[in-house]
Amino acid sequence: MKSIIIAAPHSGSGKTTITLGLMECFKRRGLRIAPFKVGPDFIDPGYHRLVCGRPSINLDGWICSPEFVRETFAYHSEGADIAVIEGVMGLFDGISGMSDQGSTAHIARITGSPVILVVDARSQARSAAALIKGFAEFDPRVRVAGVIFNNVASEGHARLLREALETLDTDTRALGFIPKDERLHIPSRHLGLLTAGENPLSGEFLDHLAEVIKDHVDLGLLWSTGGLCPTDQLLPFDEAPGVTMGGEPVRIAVARDEAFSFVYEDNLRLLRDAGADLVPFSPLRDERLPGDIGGIYLPGGYPEVFADTLEDNRAIKGEIRNAVEAGMPVYAECGGFIYLTEGVVDTKNEMESFHELLGIFPVTTRMRTRRKALGYREVKLTHDALLGPPGTIARGHEFHYSEMGEMPSTVKRLYHVHKSGVDLGAEGYSYKSCLASYVHLHFGSSPGMARSFVDNCRKYRTENLKLDAD
Question: At the N or C end, where does the chain have fewer CB atoms within 10 A?
Fold first, then answer.
């Protein structure tokens, strides 16, 4: 199996569009593609899945250990002809200015994948060679194998870029010259691109994208620059960090629809490994929860976009509310947390309106025009929780434009949260067996968390079966 990483000097260079175009071209040639995304992003992986027909997996060298990254890369690449990894931000941008941990370059080193650099060529020619030379030589452990120039103005512009690159004493090859093309624009909103569920890439868009890539990228040369996956460096599955089943399988309902689409695929895998039978349901459309469940997982997403529909579905709100009151384990993060509040204030078209939600937590959510929180988070459990005992440490990220009113002091906090060494205080709100937070935790950072959640769901289900029998 081959692998490549699509990276760039900075955000906005065209990584996502070119990644999708390469995936579409590979698929049309009958190749099996394993898609990946560097960093804590949920939107790009949705587009990868739409094109490749299989889940796209987040790889993050700060959130998870190198051993886990290698293991999950090997696991999800199994059976593929090529792994295509889309980078994040600039190639070397990571947790700090002193380290590339969490960066695309970090993942390139962990997986051994060569880098294809996407360079926005607008308003530059020979200067692009200086930029490429710097990226190619900045870290000798990272191989920048090729360059795709984006937003090329003309054939003459492409010739100047090629000539400039050929003056460098480097193995980095010119792989393509993508012309400016407004038809390749993907709509976006405050958290990034529209989700794949809201904006399915049309057949016409994909046809045009594939044609552009085929005409302007040397796919044969690109294929030859791809690295062979270093399987000898990957941990055998029986030695890899993960979880094992602790008892009989237990059914856990997972919200999966347009409003709740932000979830780490590895969270789901680790839950299954721990014995969960995951059953999807839609808070937008379903009136009842799946039967015979022992717990509920409410991932993040855009509940504020669909707040009117979520408000109107009183049947499923009642089902979830009753489950919480009965003591069923419920884990919610970010958008799922918002769904559990009293409601959300919608400010579209400068007209405020209130949409009533579940009311488990006595606060109201309001959307802001400016970002409220962004960045990596480290969480330490301070009390026994669904996800583990006190002292358990896990990592994840927080990214939202919403803010909540002050949570009453009577609501128990189970987390202590840090951001790059800065103490952010107590979070992780608890009501009965319901745990909710703004933080998207990656269970791969602390695999025992998946086991703990499944064990709690199994215990709840077993105890209720005994009560029914009595």
Answer: C
